[in-house]
């Protein structure tokens, strides 16, 4: 019989090395780097907690159900990434900017391409609103110079806490969505509702996990923005409503102090609120 | 406006603390321990490789597809755990035994309860075999004393590399499966085929991943055993066929040197091979 004593078979101690030694010479370098690190950290986790066979079975079951509830309208794995802070971490790593530039936050699952182009001042709320809010401010560079031709792609939920795409039979198409383009003064202004806080979908495996962890599924009220201009880093962000009870416990960890915005009461016809926010864009590094 | 500067919102640097601080006081202690560790290691992985937004998207897509291909006959998440060495690591952590006791390896997805009880010597292969193999040995304790009443639950693939449950329309029920019970001498013996190597299912996301990593999907030939006896730790293991070309590259990392068994040629009627293996059971700790 062959002598097998000199061969490095899998052991608890050398589990990471045993798995990573198998990667072939023809594997793409970046895939090899990512998978080697994944295996190292995944095995460290299993060893750290000494995962039991039953817990492993529960994990397999959870991961399977999380995939199976996904369809074209529901992405439970993005939710899982969100509630574990992974989405925000990836966003942070890929959008480091100098102090003073507007910070990014998560895109979220409800952005829709092809929203209507509107002239400044348009009200994006098509299903009525108890109280209208004016959103206004400037788009400038890090030196405070106005940026002409910047595009603001904006969207938010309605007063019931749902995005139009969540209620295609209830809300008009492109309700609370629009695209605005700045002029030479870099100013923007449009009307809509004061956004409201809402729960992320919590009737699936991720919602159950949040429940077991003693966490709620709510996001604080926010208006989404993608602000882009030729020659500048695109900013994907929200502005949050100051005073919202969920600011310090956003289920997806999206809040940054610099993105919290005062909503001032005003008296201007139907317009009862005013939200001012200036977007500061960072010039792209020219290669 | 509220002063938000003193509040610890999510940052790249404090991402782990931000997420783990949310676990509620009513969360089960063990769940809190497992999830805190998971978040710590998962974030360390993302930071280590500085995962890009595109790579994150590919990961979401992969995890989703891995869940969606699962059904009552296919468990792609167990395969994923297997090929990343996680199944073997969990098995190792939960089955540490003193030197000399038979080592565990993975159960695998093809065990079926309720196999027939057979008298010693029975041939478990019901679909014919080119060459019959005699499996024999003893079940003993760490001091070498025979164990009476030990149950051997055995199963393997057929000569085409498929388990009966993978081919319900082709193979007879309980083909290559059976349960044997030892007498006072602790001996066992039964007949079957020399198992053959086979690929794990590789037409799904896990098979694609293996391909990208430059890895093959094959498992070396093995006979499965669950050996149990009152008062002893149950051993779930395989014996591997010495000389198999996949012994050092088992797709699921199941091989241990102590489980590799010589298959000796013999001349005894139809019986052309003999595989000898002694199972050494470890007495359970009495609490």
Q: Could you please describe the fold and organization of this structure?
A:
2 copies of one chain form a homodimer. In chain A, the strands form 3 sheets. In chain A, strands 1, 4, 10, 11 and 12 form a 5-stranded mixed sheet that branches. In chain A, a hairpin with a 2-residue loop joins strand 10 and strand 11. Chain A is of the alpha/beta class and 287 residues long. The termini of chain A are far apart. Chain A has 2 domains: 51 residues, no CATH class; 205 residues, Protocatechuate 3,4-Dioxygenase, subunit A, CATH 2.60.130. In chain A, 24% of the residues lie in helices and 22% in strands. At the A-B interface, helix 1, helix 2, helix 3, helix 4 and helix 5 of A face helix 1, helix 2, helix 3, helix 4 and helix 5 of B.
List the helices and strands and how they pair.
Two copies of one chain form a homodimer.
Chain A lengths: L14 H6 L8 H21 L3 H16 L7 H8 L2 H9 L37 E10 L9 E5 L21 E5 L5 E7 L4 E2 L5 H8 L5 E2 L2 E7 L6 E7 L18 E2 L1 E6 L2 E6 L2 E3 L6
Parallel strand pairs in A: 1-11, 1-12, 8-9
Antiparallel strand pairs in A: 1-4, 2-3, 2-7, 5-6, 7-8, 10-11
């Amino acid at each position: 019989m062959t002598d097998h004593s000199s061969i490095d078979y899998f052991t608890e101690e050398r589990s990471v090395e045993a798995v990573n030694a198998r990667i072939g010479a023809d594997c793409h370098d970046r895939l090899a780097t990512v998978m080697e690190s994944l295996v190292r950290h995944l095995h460290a986790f299993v060893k750290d907690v000494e995962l039991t066979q039953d817990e492993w079975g529960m994990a397999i079951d959870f991961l399977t159900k999380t995939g199976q509830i996904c369809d074209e309208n529901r992405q439970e794995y993005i939710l899982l990434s969100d509630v574990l802070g992974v989405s925000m971490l990836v966003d942070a790593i890929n959008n480091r900017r100098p102090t003073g530039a507007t910070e990014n936050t998560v895109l979220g699952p409800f952005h829709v391409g092809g929203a209507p182009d509107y002239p400044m001042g348009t009200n994006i709320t098509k299903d009525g609103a108890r109280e209208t809010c004016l959103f206004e401010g400037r788009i400038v560079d890090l030196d405070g110079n106005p940026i002409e031709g910047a595009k603001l792609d904006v969207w938010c939920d309605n007063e019931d806490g749902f995005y139009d795409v969540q209620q295609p039979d209830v809300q008009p198409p492109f309700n609370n969505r629009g695209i605005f383009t700045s002029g030479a003064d870099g100013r923007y202004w449009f009307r809509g509702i004061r956004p409201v806080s809402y729960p992320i979908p919590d009737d699936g495996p991720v919602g159950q996990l949040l429940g077991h962890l003693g966490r709620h599924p709510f996001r604080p009220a926010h208006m989404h923005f993608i602000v882009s201009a030729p020659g500048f880093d695109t900013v994907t962000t929200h502005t949050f409503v100051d005073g919202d009870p969920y600011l310090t416990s956003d289920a997806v960890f999206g809040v940054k102090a610099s993105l919290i915005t005062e909503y001032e009461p005003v008296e201007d016809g139907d317009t009862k609120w005013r939200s001012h926010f200036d977007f500061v864009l960072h010039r792209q590094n020219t290669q």
